[in-house]
Recover the amino acids of this structure.
């Protein structure tokens, strides 16, 4: 058994919610969950992790689509979780509301932007939680907190009533304490716009450049996953997409333009308090030129095509979900080190975001190690299959760990 | 029989090509074709319809992918066809190289941007031709010239070696003198990045807002197509997507950013001669702000999702390919009238472009009428099925015309 020490949950939730028990007939009856504070809950202000956001944006009159769907399925919403301000960051450090501590080591960052949601599950406060993943915001905190995480195919879980960050990348994601629960909640929420026949996922491709970007712990989880896949009868091969840097470069620009499209008006008119990192990113976003966005958009297009061809509707691309264990808070005292750590993380996650592909993160370290997850990326629309494969992989990995 | 009068082919081709007979074993052996002068041919400068483009960009060392593929399939390239400057316009009017005349009425525009390719087929110079379609550049000239046109699913015919306009919208398209040849050439060139199982196309949806944007001749072709589809046993329904204007607005901005991304450097450094309309569009593109592109990109994303859900992998959306017959050249003497005519045309074509969907245009007017085509838009990847449905529709329409 992994050890979650008696745990300080300070800064994990921004508020508790009461009186939101779900329908007793639902398949999630009896399960409590928290939602990142980007999800609208009727009558409750949504902060988006910023102290001035709610005042400007007003109190939502309606629940987000997923909040309603989970209520119908029987789950009970018990809190709104902390996050990286505006969901625009990967560390989870929030200068306004405080930062939730990593449940496996309180000296380390939880990862973000869905920090509080991941910590609530990692600290065994709730069995599952809602987050969002634009550039890695479910996958990275899942990896750092040693829990299961799911980023669906873009637009396959409805995002109505969720504060956007960058709509062409944004997804509603799920954290869970087990691979089985992750699949169950995924089944409840997945609503692909159209259900088309799919191929069977029968091949595993290990992204070899990702191994170069990873620390020893990140490489080790890939090796473990590869062995487990082979035991499962799925043959694996190494591929070098050559696209990790290109996806990072392209997403940085296209995403920034979309973020600025969302926040331009209120940031200019309201002049909200902003953390240093987010203020800097927003300012840079506002200065991007049309031609630059155009070139990044064109580059994205080429990346999507190449990855679609590579996966061919049947392959799982395997990468470490993060370079290694969660860095210590002290790494982020220095702006240059922060910038580098951020880039190192996002180079592993932005490829799937750029292509809108589903990813499941499975913890793959031993119980006495700091957690690192393995990220399984599938073709568009392969979500349910991918969640099943992840469950089987998890069984193998846990058997191997003994 | 429709009448193509003895025809002035001035300005149709920018140059003839010799010595490019195809492989005798290929299925297109014996067929001649022309390519829009955006397609690279080894050793021949590509003008992109601009008098200074080739000098700056150098002579291509290699054929475009489609030129090679057609050669292997036996077809003979005999010329490079005129186009709207940089492919950035829908009229086909080219102030530098002259404008090809519409083969059905020399007082009318050919439509663009693939003007010369459409005219070469419409005037019976060649049985098929290559064009490109970013926002309607195959569909509109096909409709105006009374021929068959195909815009494939985005990225399902490789665009390597083709001068880009806006990569996330650009497609390599085909014109042909018959529905059957259109399908044959389509089969030769279609290379989806991945072949997934598809549903059968079994429903027809008529976009009712499009009828409101059309002239009587445009509405009449939709009525004819609807009757023919019902005779074919495909039931039809009217739908109002409510997205024609939204797609036009979003594409205008995202496309402009991508166009500026392509042309910014050489336009600033080389200061080429530019027609008034293209100069104005490029200037406006350079002035677009990041937030604006971000919002347009997010809007596009929502449109794609809605149309994907509407078509559900099995429906054909039916619109007139153009509001009515080709306007007379005289309409475009006045900038305001030009602007309005352009918008009216693009509101019918930009929805499929925005969503990257395949479209086949079938001539649907009587032989003594000025031509207007019917545009059949299918779900992503339904290209071959759509080409077959178009062939059957065409048989019905021709039988009905007697």
């Amino acid at each position: 058994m992994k050890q979650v020490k008696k745990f300080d949950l300070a800064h994990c939730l921004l508020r508790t919610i009461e009186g939101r028990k779900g329908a007793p007939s639902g398949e999630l009856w009896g399960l409590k969950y928290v939602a990142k504070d980007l999800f609208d809950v009727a009558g409750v202000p949504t902060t988006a992790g910023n102290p001035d956001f709610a005042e400007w944006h007003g109190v939502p009159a309606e629940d987000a689509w997923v909040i309603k769907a989970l209520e119908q399925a029987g789950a009970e919403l018990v809190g709104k979780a902390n996050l990286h301000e505006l969901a625009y960051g990967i560390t989870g450090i929030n200068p306004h509301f405080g930062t939730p501590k990593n449940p496996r080591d309180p000296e380390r960052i939880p990862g973000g932007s869905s920090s509080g949601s991941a910590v609530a599950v990692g600290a065994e406060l709730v069995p599952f939680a809602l987050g969002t993943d634009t550039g890695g915001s479910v996958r990275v905190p899942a990896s750092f907190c040693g829990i299961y995480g799911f980023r669906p195919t873009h637009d396959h879980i409805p995002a109505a009533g969720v504060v956007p960050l960058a709509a062409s990348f944004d997804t509603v994601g799920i954290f869970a304490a087990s691979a089985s629960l992750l699949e169950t909640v995924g089944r409840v929420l997945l609503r692909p716009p159209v259900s088309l026949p799919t191929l069977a996922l029968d091949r595993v491709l290990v992204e070899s450049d990702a191994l170069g970007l990873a620390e020893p712990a990140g490489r080790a989880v890939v090796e473990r996953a590869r062995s487990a896949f082979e035991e499962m009868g799925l043959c694996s091969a190494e591929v070098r997409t050559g696209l990790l840097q290109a996806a990072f470069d392209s997403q940085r620009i296209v995403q920034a333009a979309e973020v600025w499209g969302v926040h331009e008006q209120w940031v200019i008119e309201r002049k909200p308090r902003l953390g240093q990192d987010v203020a800097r990113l927003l300012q840079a976003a506002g200065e991007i030129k049309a031609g630059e966005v155009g070139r990044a958009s064109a580059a994205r297009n080429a990346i999507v095509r190449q990855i679609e061809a590579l996966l061919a509707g049947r392959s799982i691309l395997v990468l470490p979900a993060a370079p290694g264990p969660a860095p210590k808070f002290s790494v982020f005292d220095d702006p240059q080190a922060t910038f580098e750590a951020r880039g190192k993380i996002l180079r592993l996650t932005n490829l799937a975001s750029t292509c809108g592909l589903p990813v499941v993160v499975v913890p793959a370290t031993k119980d006495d190690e700091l957690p690192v997850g393995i990220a399984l990326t599938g073709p568009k629309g392969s979500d349910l299959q991918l969640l099943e494969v992840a469950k089987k992989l998890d069984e193998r990995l846990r058997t191997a760990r003994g």
In short: Chain B has one domain: 13-245+294-401.
